[in-house]
């Protein structure tokens, strides 16, 4: 029985994780979780997971009212509540399915405690990759990716020496606007942007897919997860989203991970410590593959990937600026405050405005994140006057 602490239980990854756990009740035990502001989901989670000892919500007022409803449970709130939850309960695995910068400190806290982390929170490695990799050298804990692309790479790399690898290739659907020219992006709507051609995901990552910032983030993650230089990490457009990533070897051959667009497969792979297990997903027979279409990636069409590559090359505090400006800009777009195309300009201005810190501490990264958000909010305020 593997004990689990699930951060982000109310999101897409969190809910699918709970589905897998409920299908294997003798293998997993949920000890604690967080749901942000989605407190309406707490009763069903508790009903289906009898071992829960505590949970965290976003709003302190909700926390106080919930304490009267569940007096036997430890109930916490806010970012500090997430940290306390990790420190309070000894578990076998922390699953970090939080969205945004808020996920960084919990990842570091869990690893410092020697607890394995299954990571769906892209921002942890994007912002704190250097800190996390240095920490992993000092502790016994392991870090397991949950992203479909990185799980695919992990599978393809098993049993192969680094000297055999020519490059890692991340596939990209291109998101909602893959068939639209840059000129056509001027007047796209929020609803347009939220219609992903292949995957069902949360709003923030769906917008990141439309700008392709998610693919830029994934290049940064792959660099830290697999210790590959950016020059050996490539992106290729793939329409069908069935080839999740490829590895090219020095002899010219490839290994590819092929499967349905179902996040339960990579989630289960992380839950079971990088072991393949039978899951109730709709598989693909070879005769159902159909044609696979691949296209060259055009960085001029997707400037956000260029921003991410610049941040990776520069390192230091610049990835924190990249992430914070993206979070603020995407939220502003989802709130109808800016146009889709303006997401890029806000990120670009934030990167240009920043004074680099070469080897930032976690405290400094938090300060950079806050300062960047203030700068971007002022830009947006000026646009909406």
Jot down its keywords.
about 375 residues; alpha/beta; Rossmann fold; Rna Polymerase Sigma Factor, Chain: A; 3 domains; 7-stranded parallel beta sheet; 5-stranded mixed beta sheet; 15 helices; about 45% helix
Largest sheet: 7 strands, parallel
Mean pLDDT: 94
**SSE arrangement, N to C:** EHEHEHEHEHEHEHEHHHEEEHEHHHH
Shape assignment? globular
Low-pLDDT runs of 5+ residues are: none
Distance between the termini: 56 Å
Cα-based radius of gyration, to the nearest Å: 20 Å
Report the count of strand segments: 12
Question: What is the count of distinct domains?
Answer: 3
Instruction: Please indicate the percent range of residues in DSSP E strands (runs of 2 or more).
Output: 15-25%
Strand order of the largest sheet: 4-3-2-1-5-6-7
Q: Percent of residues in helical segments?
A: 40-55%
Number of helices: 15
Structural class: alpha/beta
